[in-house]
Amino acid sequence: MAELLQGSLQPGALITLAVLLLSISLFVWAVIPPEITGLLAVGLLMATGVLKPGEALAGFGSPALLTVMALFALSAGLFKSGALDGLRGLIGSDAIRTPKRMIVLLSAVVGPISAFVPNTPIVASLLPVIEGWCHRRRISPSKVLLPLSFATVLGGTLTLLGSSVNLLASEVSEKLGYGAFSLFSFSGIGLGVWLVGSLVMALLADRFLPDRGRDDDNLVGGLASGYLTEVMVPAGSELIGQSLHGSRLQRRFDLDVLELHRGQERFTPPLADRPLQQGDRLLLRCNRADLLRLQQEHTIVLAPTPDSPDNADTVAGSQRMVEVLLPAGSSLAGGCLRDMRFRQRYNATVLALRRGNAVLRERLGKAVLREGDVLLLQGPKDAIRGLQANNDLVVLEQLEDDLPTVGRKQLALTIAVLSILLSGLGLVPLVASVLLGTVAMVATGCLRSGELQRSIRLDVILLLGSLASFSVALEKTGLAEAVARGLLNGLQDWSIYWALAAVFLFTTLLTEVMSNAATVAMLIPIAAKLVIGLGMPPMAGIFAVLFGASQSFLSPVGYQTNLMVFGPGRYRFLDVARYGLPLTVVMTLLVPLLICRQFGI
User: Fold this and answer.
1) In angstroms, what is the C-alpha Rg of the chain?
2) CA–CA distances in Å: residue 159 to residues 192, 375, 567, 571
């Protein structure tokens, strides 16, 4: 590394390298949220004099960032108005009878839509629809939910609007002097990726996707991957003085008793012969149907969490029970119900917690929440409806009386299509067309102003705005060129095709352990210098990084939609890698070939 830092480097190269390594460590180990890491890097680069404030903060006023904000609003308008209800109806159709046909349909329909609509709301909207289809067909959700995520990933590289990472890459490329992307700059490559990837997904489905059971499967829904909840033995219960073995509790319900808590004492299995007392709390694992029955059972009651009322088991007519998911970037991750006062914040009581196939043994109030957790909530309809606009939770069920206004479906769809056409035809800049579309959504009533504000994900905006400083610092200090020279020495005997394959694969692997936006910001300056040294146009290297950062198929944490389906699909960590590894190998061989073809290399 010392040799790399000799020569024509600016004095700030060592500082930039230190900030870069610190940021990578924080991204990988997730010590703090990614957007906070980005802000830390910006602050350090300014405080040490590597970048002037105008250079470091330019990303927060960039057209790419404003475009991302407007896309959040446009997609919210489409979903709120019901413009994509036809998609939900098509996906949930009973005409689709097998998992393979569902995967083909998801690839053919969801992929292209993901080229223009952010994939997170698509997955959030379709999750309950697909789970309902699986329930009717008695098919395990694990056979189709991962392909749903992968379909949005493949479709996200069809156009510039498919992902916020695409827009960030365009912004970085323009700042480095290589030019911004047009709406369809890499669509030729993306089309090949989508078609081949869809074919591979369908062919691999039977052999590589696991069957993790269904909600109504006693083994899976009840014990192996059911909900964690607590019940309490109330005064007057027939259980007082009886043992679990002698009572009718486990014969009446399909549940597993994990622990018994009595005051400050904690008892673990075997518990069958231990007499129960008033006030005892039992930590249970059971399915959703039995949780509903437990609410009507008077020999035991659902134990209140620290911030819930003692009569939490009382079900009022206006109360609803729904599942919610903690998505990637949720501010609730890392906290526990006892500390965050969940009920006061959301006016909803947490009844139970589910975490994929993991066996949880913490008490409900003390369990530390993680991204991908599924919570079973109970609360008034208005409170549940309010959660639908919350970025920290994704409601996995549609409220039957909260359907969109039918009369504005066509209007919202027309506004979205015009926003894309104005830019695609070169009549107005992309940022102008999507901003005008956002205003039109609010002005016509397709989206309320409050919904507009809630639709914008602040964590994404802070991350994208701060990461632009990485690329500027790498280029300004000469560090990008120095690293590229070092890599060039190792790749000088390689063919252009294999050099691009190496860039793509390295980017893909790095994306699995840190933010794909951070990967793009860090690697584009280096990859551009590298391919220039190999006699290729810089855009070839930039596209290799862009597609490498977008094709995340190896882990549930590599991409936010992978994490969204991980819990509801009851996947295990290696399930994602098993299905995604062949797809990654195919893409590593395919993408460089398509890049060489596009640039005539």
Assistant:
1) 26
2) 13, 35, 29, 30
Sorted by sequence, the CB contacts under 8 Å of residue 342 that are 6+ apart come out as 305, 307, 348, 350
Listed residue (293, 286, 407) closest to 352, CA to CA: 286
Residue 561: per-residue pLDDT: 82
Q: Are 225 and 373 in contact, with CB atoms under 8 Å apart?
A: no
- Burial label for 120, CB within 10 Å (0-12, 13-18, 19+), is buried
Number of Cβ within 10 Å of residue 245's Cβ equals 12
The one-letter amino acid at 420: I
User: Which pTM does this prediction carry?
Assistant: 0.71
3-class DSSP state for residue 255? strand
DSSP-assigned letter for residue 162: G
End-to-end CA distance of the chain: 31
SS3 content of the chain, % helix, strand, coil (to 5): 55, 10, 35
Residues 6+ apart with CB under 8 A from 504: 544, 545, 547, 548, 587, 588, 591, 592
* Burial of 181 from C-beta contacts in 10 A (0-12 / 13-18 / 19+): buried
Q: What is the DSSP letter of 276?
A: B
Other Cβ atoms less than 10 A from the Cβ of 318: the count is 10
One-character DSSP codes across 29-60: HTSS-HHHHHHHHHHHHHHTTSS-HHHHTGGG
How far apart CA 212 and CA 579 sit, in angstroms, is 14
The backbone torsions φ and ψ at residue 482, rounded to the nearest 5 degrees and listed phi first, read -65, -45
- Given this model, what pLDDT does residue 195 score? 95
**Looking at the chain, how many residues does it have?**
601
Look up the CATH architecture of domain 218-395.
2-Layer Sandwich (3.30)
Least Cα distance to 106 among 417, 592, 595, 561 occurs for 561
Question: Which residue has 């060039």 as its token pair?
Answer: 488
Integer Cα distance of 213 and 210 in angstroms: 9
Residue closest to 547 by CA, chosen among 218, 187, 47: 187
Q: Do the Cβ atoms of 472 and 507 come closer than 8 Å?
A: no
Model pLDDT, residue 197: 94
Listed in sequence order, the residues at least 6 apart from 294 whose beta carbon sits closer than 8 Å to its beta carbon are 229, 231, 253, 286, 300, 302, 313
pLDDT of residue 288: 63
Residue 598: phi and psi, rounded to 5, are -65, -35
Crossing angle for the helix pair 13-29 and 516-533, nearest 10 degrees?
A: 140
Instruction: Tell me the two tokens of residue 496.
Output: 């252009």
Which residues in 126-140 are b (16+ Cβ under 10 Å) and which e?
A: bbbbbbebbeebebb
- Residues sharing a CB contact under 8 Å with residue 347, sequence separation 6 or more, in sequence order: 379, 380, 383, 386
What does the alpha-carbon distance between residue 188 and residue 213 come to, in Å, rounded to a whole number?
A: 39
Q: Where are the domains of the chain?
A: 13-33+472-598, 64-212+404-458, 218-395
Q: Which of 372, 397, 391, 392 is nearest to 321 (CA)?
A: 397
Mean pLDDT by 10 residues, the chain (601 residues): 51 83 80 83 89 84 83 81 74 82 91 86 80 82 90 91 87 86 89 94 89 53 54 81 72 70 79 81 72 65 58 49 77 78 79 67 71 80 74 68 56 86 83 89 82 77 81 81 78 84 90 81 87 88 92 80 80 86 94 91 77
